[in-house]
């Protein structure tokens, strides 16, 4: 809800992901079953775009996840 209202979340909840694209953020979530990452683009005219969500299994984000996220951002924003 904070993202929808225009607030910027900081660490440890969120961090910018310029390796995907300018304006994309990585939300960092965890529960008893593991850690999860959600890539969002909060600056879209339509609202907050949720581009990709996945369970984090390694210390680095897999290149395949970054690629999927870039493709979805292009598809949704025609950029």
Task: Describe the protein in words.
- With 79 residues, this protein is of the alpha+beta class.
- Helices cover 19% and strands 39% of the residues.
- The chain contains 1 helix and 4 strands, in the order ββββα.
- The protein has a 4-stranded antiparallel β-sheet, with helices on one face.
- The protein starts with 13 loop residues before the first strand and ends with a helix.
List keywords for this structure.
alpha+beta; 79 residues; 1 helix; four-stranded antiparallel beta sheet; globular; single chain
Q: What is the topology?
A:
Layout (H helix, E strand, L loop, with lengths): L13 E3 L8 E7 L2 E11 L2 E10 L6 H15 L2
Antiparallel strand pairs: 1-2, 2-3, 3-4
